[in-house]
Amino acid sequence: xxxxxxxxxxxxxxxxxxxxxxxxxxxxxxxxxxxxxxxxxxxxxxxxxxxxxxxxxxxxxxxxxxxxxxxxxxxxxxxxxxxxxxxxxxxxxxxxxxxxxxxxxxx
Length: 107
Hints:
Elements: H1 3-13, H2 23-44, H3 47-55, H4 58-82, H5 85-105
């Protein structure tokens, strides 16, 4: 399980009231929603990554995943900081519709 889930459960059990999500929370989670299918596609269709995952050593797989995480965070943090939530949500809807359409019609 994720640390944030343990933290949330612990805070609820300690009696801390939940706060309403603010604009920063919306920007962050809509940015994740927007970038998730892009990152999945980049990871799944990358020929270098596929070769590493099939034939690479443990260290190569670890290094590849660390680089992928760093690149993902390097894109996510500016996107969450400067892109408005409405724009992120609109782009997320378009990207997810396109991803489902591509997955449905892929030959």
